[in-house]
Amino acid sequence: MGDGPEFTLRGDGSITTYCNDKFCSTVTFTVINLNDCITNVYGDLQPKADGYAGNFWQSCKDCRVEGSHIICQCGKGDGGFKESSINIDDIVHNWNGYLSCSGQISSCYPMRWNCKPANWWPDGWRPAIVDTPCDIWQAAMMPPANLTLPPGLKLSTDLMSKGRA
């Protein structure tokens, strides 16, 4: 997706990107709140364990993106902070065109496969859907200028065509 980061880190701890949807041969805008994926353990960013709260965003600050890593200053629990990083590629995955982590996807963005009926879902395993707020609507309306699609894929414009903002 160009020479820049593969995703955008938002001010609420969520990331946005475009993922390939193998069912409709499109690229869809998708988001997941990393508070459902990452935790801070005494200053170290780690994947969230099942059944535990992530919420790294509450105890980390000055987060930035470098390649596929998120780097933050994270609280150590003693009042101090230390730099910590985590590779997003190790914990966030493309599940049929939508970002997924820890066996779950976010309700932040409507899941719809444009070439399928409205209530269609892929067969097989289904991730849990978590209801974590994300501030993504403005970003969803503006695809990045440097977005390069692989041959044969097109950008899904379902959200844009509905005029949501």
UniProtKB/TrEMBL annotation:
Pfam families attached to this UniProt entry: CVNH
Organism superkingdom: Eukaryota
SUPFAM superfamilies according to UniProt: Cyanovirin-N (SSF51322)
Family matches, as InterPro entries: Cyanovirin-N, Cyanovirin-N_sf
Domain Cyanovirin-N: 15-99
Protein's name in the database: CVNH domain-containing protein
Originating species: Colletotrichum zoysiae
